[in-house]
Amino acid sequence: MKAIVIRRGETTPVLVEKPRPAPGEGEALVRTLRVGVDGTDHEVLLGAHGGFPEGEDHLVIGHEAVGVVVDPNGTSLAEGDVVVPTVRRPPNGPNEYFERGEPDMAPEGQYHERGISGAHGFMAEYFTSPEWSLVEVPPELAELGFLVEPISITVKAMEHARASRSAFEWSPESALVLGNGSLGLLTLAMLRGEFERLYCLGRRDRPDPTISIIEDLGGTYVDSRETPVSEVPAVHEGMDLVYEATGYAKHAFESIRALAPNGVAALLGVPEPWTFEVDGGALHRELVLQNKAVVGSVNSNARQFERAVDTLDGLPDRFLDDLVTGVYGLDEFERTFAEDDTTIKTAVELATR
Amino acid sequence: MKAIVIRRGETTPVLVEKPRPAPGEGEALVRTLRVGVDGTDHEVLLGAHGGFPEGEDHLVIGHEAVGVVVDPNGTSLAEGDVVVPTVRRPPNGPNEYFERGEPDMAPEGQYHERGISGAHGFMAEYFTSPEWSLVEVPPELAELGFLVEPISITVKAMEHARASRSAFEWSPESALVLGNGSLGLLTLAMLRGEFERLYCLGRRDRPDPTISIIEDLGGTYVDSRETPVSEVPAVHEGMDLVYEATGYAKHAFESIRALAPNGVAALLGVPEPWTFEVDGGALHRELVLQNKAVVGSVNSNARQFERAVDTLDGLPDRFLDDLVTGVYGLDEFERTFAEDDTTIKTAVELATR
User: Fold this and answer.
1) Ranges for the Alcohol dehydrogenase-like N-terminal domain (chains A, B) (predicted)?
2) Which residues in chain B have Cβ-Cβ distances shorter than 8 Å to A276?
């Protein structure tokens, strides 16, 4: 079968031939339909995040997949079921986090991440996966099923953000999403209805397709070149929620200043080490006197994938059309990895059914 | 009646005569028994925190009080009831936070704090207070009732810290309290039983009464001069909870490094502005990849005072004996404000019954 891999020492993915995998006990064989690409994939390609499977010279990339079961192999799945795989797998037999359905909370060393770290991903014509990791998707959502994983990332982050505010009566109205990449825009669309006033921060000039999406969703575009994050309350309003999806480390700290009293900042970016000055006294004081919270969040579990399927079903068609700017076959898979101002969300198509 | 006040422009409290207050509608008149002193009082004396009541040249200090109802004044309280007053009052008629019983979550401008900011405190022979702000205490706890307020501060902080970890299965075992002042030690005593392994950080040489208390409680003393907060995981272990009660701004950031994966840092200190360098990239990355949280917490509400009464009742007598190093009458009230290594928790005694 064909697979898209990154080889050790290289930064550009290539198409290779690999043997079709055989499902082990408790695993199903899945024919891959589509696999999305996100910022983590680009970091994996650059070697800034993740790692190769032990003893191998390449990594099959891709962690945002949707496929069709071709061999249930004794699991409760049926041939033809459309499924989305979760990302984390136990590295050396099961551990407590996987056993209780919370691999997203496993600490380093207690998980591999398919397509990212220590285990092959899904950008291949077939993959195998344990039954517990395969979340069913209604057939009519198959084409967009590759969005379930990124949506589940926000489902989890919002569960944790809301939990952090559950010790009191919290009625949030304003939310600021930092980052107008595909995750930021998906999150903005997900927060509609829950928040009365939405803002999304980027640093693009108009006309720009992401700014159009932000405004179509009823959000306000905030240009960080004009309004730094810490000045958002002065220019707009204090935010009940800040959702950081930029990976820009200063945003983690400026988010605290952007919050309204009792607000929460959800952090999702994964920056490299970077030392800089902060007014740590003022930040500390503000966290305390204004009862603010900061919550870091990574990965997501099968329950959150299930919620993400429902969420995907409720997103407006027009938004989804605008978000997905390209789906490419294996003959032009390189286009999936383009990074320019007209590319928002892309996927590779490995099969249509 | 006699009252202990701080006058504008001064930093030392003085004993003055004031008229006995008359209870307004919905208020009871309380004879004050004891009023504790904490770090916030010292900040108020120095002018670093809080403010005078509008148009007045002095502030009656003290916010950790216990007293006896002498005139119920039509409230459901009875003469002789032992009560502890909460601290926040609405500044200009009730607002939503007070109406729903969560004045601790009110933003700046929507509260006064008695004895701290904008309203007279309790260090006087009598005070009046609305019925909703008076929490009953069993008569046998009257002598130690001044500890209910500081205990309620930790009750609230722990409610928020636990809430932030309630979106997943969190089974914390290790806790580090930063600060061996009276709040730190009270917190350490409160966390016994809930946490298997307790640590408390200070910077004192042995022999020291706070180190003895830490060890009597089964905790491990961490000398910050030998083991900085960020090195605690290497020397001891990663902490499921870090509780910051030092007001030292660098601790807010170092706490993140001290946490185990999935841990939470509760911040309670109120430092002044202070700019310094942090490895913001590494902190941001660690918050995200290890699902860590930071929660700021200030003040507490009547429900949390009620929980604090039960908590006080469960603390070991020996600990309480060691914690309260001095209770002084009005003739030697200055001793209540001593700050030396043999002073832990003190109170002024205004009446014995």
Assistant:
1) 24-138
2) 277-278, 280
